[in-house]
User: Fold this.
Amino acid sequence: MGTMPREPGAFAELVASMLRERQPEYAIDLVGPRELLVNGRRLDLENLFRMVSHEPGRGQEIVAHYLDQLFASDAVQYMSVPFDLARNRIMPRIQPESIFEHLTYTPHGGSGLGWTRADCLDATVDELDWACRRLDSRRQAEAEALKRR
Assistant:
């Protein structure tokens, strides 16, 4: 598959076009260079843009998979399942702290936080607390590494 545009506005336009092809019944509006409005729900494209930038040669494939996964649950939500059947399938969200390493600290300058607005809004209070507690130790480790150079 092809590459995606590197400019955020053009990227968002192509994502909107791909989504319209997959979901023609959805109302899709381009709100900003990294944001769509899909059936009245905000879709932030920041993380998708970041994923594609890491593997630009697979851009359209990554976006297609993302959109398919994102809206696959919409079909499921219209199926009615009694709570008694679903109760045993409900699981807590348990993740190792290491999955947040790439979000926690951006070396050399700024606040050191590499979180987007969407990352912050999607995080739980515990995840935000963990990131804030870890920030000082990451800054100190960077300062020590710079001293050794």
Q: What stands out?
A: Residues 95-148 form one domain.
